[in-house]
Design brief:
By secondary structure, the protein is of the alpha/beta class. The protein folds into two domains: 54-157 and 283-306, 3-Layer(aba) Sandwich (Rossmann fold); 159-272 and 310-370, Rossmann fold (3-Layer(aba) Sandwich), CATH 3.40.50.2300. Helix content is 38%, strand content 18%. It is built from eleven helices and 14 strands. The strands form three sheets. A six-stranded parallel β-sheet has the order 2-1-3-4-5-11, with helices on both faces. Helix 2 (69-84) links the parallel strand 1 and strand 2 (88-93). Helix 2 packs across helix 9 (283-294). 42% of the residues are buried.
């Protein structure tokens, strides 16, 4: 067989074999496999949306730089920011009058999305009540008031405890046995403080007499200065105040006399005259109220009255010139207040008219204290508006 014939025969065999193999595959139903389907990756679950921060607003009766009442409230506002971080956004409006304008401020605060609003002075009570009745989804907090609503509650500090401790120091430091008080507005809160200051002084010096000059404002440095000077001219050598600036303390220093800081530590304003500062720490309450609002636990229609045992009231920065035994007495009082074993308003207590107010060992309850509208024995003059005396 020729070479070409052999090649032709081999080609025929190969082609025949390939055809047979193809037929066999077709008979078995085999088909080319399709590419494996690509499974789409499951979408990544997005993190839950972060809740919007709670907006909290504060209305102040004075300027934040008053060094006293408003300064103390603003320090507490900053404490709220520090405690809760980006869970809250706070704001404030200062120098809001205790008048109809307060209502406009509260409504404006609510319109800006604030759902927790603090009004920090007694005179805001009626305006806040009115706004609370209209804006039931807003939570209102009123300082030093006594009227509440389903979405409005009250809070206060027992400032009379700080006043009493100041009195103990004043009683030990006076040479003339005459003390002077610059009063703001003659409401029970302030009258109670004047009386407590006097009783504290009398606890170490029964000869004490207290003179009072009212200015009918919370914050008015010129008036406070004038009132303080008139008390010094009348023989007072230790001054106390229930006003919001450091003017009384500074006036005492210029005259070479003594005085106290009030609401905040005022040592720096007049270090030579400063005997101690009766301070208020609003932070515990503001933090608690804000946490209640954040956690959905806030409820209106109630009131809180916090004192030394709650960390709200203290006597700080007592001067070196104060006798060691007086400082020790202050520490004993603090311990008693904290333990609940010491009561400032405990009989016998006699009014300036000579009538017994509390019998021996009788302790005044909060209802009694909230309605103090009289002077105790040793306070000269009469309470403004009291025509019976």
């Amino acid at each position: 067989m020729s070479l070409n014939s052999k090649r032709q025969l081999l080609k025929t065999v190969v082609l025949t074999s390939l055809a047979a193999a193809a037929a066999l595959l077709a008979g078995c139903g085999k088909k080319p496999e399709a590419p494996a389907a690509v499974t789409a990756a499951a979408p990544v679950a997005s993190a839950p949306a972060k809740p919007a921060p709670l907006k909290v607003a504060f209305a102040y009766v004075g300027p934040v730089g008053d060094g006293g009442w408003t300064f103390a409230h603003d320090n507490a506002r900053k404490a709220v920011e520090k405690e809760f971080g980006d869970r809250v956004v706070t704001s404030f409006v200062e120098k809001v009058p205790e008048a109809a304008d307060a209502e406009r401020v509260f409504r404006d605060m609510a319109s800006q999305g604030n759902t927790l609003i603090f009004g920090t002075t007694f005179g805001y009570m009626e305006p806040m009540l009115k706004v609370a009745a209209d804006l039931k989804d807003v939570k209102f907090e009123h300082a030093t008031g006594y009227k509440q609503a389903p979405n409005m509650r009250t809070y206060d500090s027992r400032t009379y405890e700080g006043a009493y401790m100041a009195g103990v120091i004043a009683g030990a430091m006076t040479k003339s046995n005459t003390l002077g008080v610059v009063g703001s507005i003659p409401i029970p809160e302030v009258i109670r403080n004047i009386n407590s200051f006097t009783m504290g002084a009398q606890s170490v010096n029964p000869k004490i007499k207290t003179k009072v000059v009212w200015i009918n404002e919370w914050f008015n440095p010129p008036k406070e200065t004038e009132a303080a000077q008139s008390l010094l001219n009348a023989g007072a050598d230790v001054l106390f105040q229930n006003t919001d600036s450091s003017a009384v303390l500074q006036t005492a220093e210029k005259a070479g006399k003594y005085a106290f800081g009030w609401d905040s530590d005022m040592t720096a304003y007049a270090p030579k005259a400063h005997l101690g500062s009766a301070i208020i720490n609003w932070a515990p309450y503001y933090i608690s109220a804000t946490r209640d609002a954040l956690d959905g636990k806030w409820a209106g229609g109630s009131g809180s009255w916090l004192g030394h045992k709650d960390g709200a009231i203290d006597m700080v920065s007592i001067a070196e010139v104060v006798p060691a035994e007086t400082k020790a007495k202050i520490e004993t009082i603090k311990a008693g207040l904290k333990a609940g074993t010491f009561s400032i308003w405990k009989g016998p207590i006699v009014g300036s008219d000579g009538k017994e107010i509390l019998k021996k060992d009788e302790v005044a309850d909060d209802k009694f204290l909230s309605g103090v509208k009289f002077y105790v024995k040793g306070v000269e003059g009469k309470v403004p508006g009291d025509d019976k005396k």
